[in-house]
Each structure stands twice: as C-alpha cells, then as structure tokens.
Amino acid sequence: MITVENLTKTYGQVRALDKVSFQVEEGEVLGFLGPNGAGKTTAMRIITGFMPPTKGRVTVGGLDVEKDNLAVRRLIGYLPENSPLYWDMDVQGYLHFVSEVKGVPRKDRARKVREVMEEVAVTDVRNRTVGKLSKGYKQRVGLAQALLNDPPVLILDEPTVGLDPKQIIEIRELIKSMAGKRTIILSTHILPEVSMVCQRVIIINKGQIAAVDTPGNLTERLQTSRQMEVIVRAPEKDLEQKLRALPGVKGIQISHHENGVLTVVVDSEKGKDLRPAVAQTLVGAGWELYGLRAIEMSLEEIFIQLVTEE
To answer: Which of 101, 76, 189, 99 lies closest to 148 in space, CA to CA?
Structure first.
C-alpha cells in the first residue's frame, strides 16, 4: 500500500533523512520508532504530501505523492502530533466543517460525521466546545477528522502523547480495532505500545533505518544468549553447583528472598532451551520450585542497542 524508495531530505547542510526505503502492506499496522530528531516526523510529512523530499519517491496505493498529491491526500487520514482542531467550534460542527473541506458529498456528511463520532466514542460530547475538552477527547476528535473521508491509510504521529494511562489504553484499543481494515503508520515514544499494537516496527536513527522487522524477530536477532528466571527454595551452594554443571549454562546470578527462597537468572547458549533440564534437576534434588520462566529481550533494550553508539 505504501512504498518509500531512497527517501532523502536535507535542510542546508543537515540531512534529516538519508536514503530511507521501506514498504507497508495493506491492512498492516507499522510502528515508527526513533529518538527525537531521528527523522520520523519528516518522513510522515513527506508520505502525507505536506512536504516534498529532496530526493527519492513515495507511492501510496500506486500513486506518486509528488505527481498525484491531491489524489494521495484523499487516501490518507493524518493525525499530526498537535491535532488540527478549532478550539471555538463544537465537536459536531467542527467535524461537519472538516467533512466539507475533505470533499465528502453533501448527502453523506451527516451520516459520516455520526459514524466517526461513534467509532471514536465522542458522541456524548458532540455539542461541547472543542477547546473545553480533555486532552483525551481532543485526541479522539483529531482521530475523527482523520477518518471522515474513510481513508484506507492512517498516519498517526504520537497519538497518545500527553494522555493519562486510561486515555492511552483507550486510544491504543481504538487503533488496534482498525488493524486489517486500514493501513496504519504509528509514530510513538511509548515502546510497549508498539509491541501491543504493531505487527512490524521500523527503528530510525540519525535519518537512517537501523532495523525493520517484527518485535519478535528483532529479539531473536539481537539476543546473544537465552535467559530464564528460576525461583526456588534450595541451599545456595548446592544450587549453584548443580546449575553450573548443566551443559549449555553460561552463567548464573543469584539473589536472596526471605525463608531461603532464591531467585536465579540462568544464562544459556542462544537457541538452547534449558528449562526442562533445569526443572528436572531442581525437582530431582527435592527442592521446592516456585517459578520458572524465559526472559525475553525487551523492546526498550532492542531500541537502546540499535540507536546507541558504543
């Protein structure tokens, strides 16, 4: 649905984007991550036709963003970080105004406004002035304007910034409900949001792509060893001796709890799952095993590893 080829954007001597290329499939939710100044917002503005590239090409639905700018804009619903809202209008009046600007046929406007208000759950505040709404409701109204012309593509730049935890969950669930129905690019600094909402993630740093993959595949590629956490009641020296004797164990770290309960982090070789062997060893020794789980590399750790220079 979206193809980005060798996208480059320069401001004088500053190169905000440097030969960026990626694709987004129809119905996919793609997470766009990067530190401040990495080039995320610049890329989104170029994809949506608000800014021309210095070099490179973007197509949306087979249409060239530069050559068919207006046609591409009709395919895209765009929610920038600062929602384009008119504070002195009521919600319903604002959405009617936007529907006219976006070229929604007159006979369909009332129905479309009603449908998007229901979809983003702002019907109960339809007669309230936009400027008096909470931050969460303002974001919902901003999302409603992006959906008014029923676009197949949504570009959302930091849609949950500044929201409280409850509002973040509500907006996140709303975005998840659109998966498969629309192609979505979601820029965010909230890393757990990506693993909860997005099928794939692009990590961009200093204007270049550092990684493109699913969160699971990134973990597999970057994790140099496997780890597990074991909670057990056992004599510390005997426990350490038995675990270190297991083939494939690279190291262990033990911390203490009350009443002789120990938490042990066991490092093993990449691709080798020692959980069955560890469980069998501990139970066979007659020790009380309270928990055993694999420890996966978090998205935060992946992000830091990819964007931090050694």
So the answer is: 99
* Strand-pair partners of 3: 23, 59
Domain that holds residue 289: 224-296
User: What CA dihedral angle connects 30, 309, 80 and 215, to 10 degrees?
Assistant: 20
Helix or strand (DSSP H, E) at 264: strand 261-269
pLDDT band at 250 (very low <50, low <70, confident <90, very high): confident
Residue 55 in any domain: the answer is: yes
As a whole number, mean pLDDT of residues 25-37 equals 86
The yes-or-no verdict on residue 106 having pLDDT over 70 is: yes
pTM: 0.72
Q: Is 97 helix (H, G, I), strand (E, B) or coil?
A: helix
Residue 306 falls inside a structural domain = no
H helices of 164-229, in order, are 165-177, 191-197, 215-222
Residue after which a domain boundary falls, among 167, 191, 213? 213
- Give the three-state DSSP class for 225: strand
| Domain assignment present for 305 | no
Give the number of domains in the chain: 2
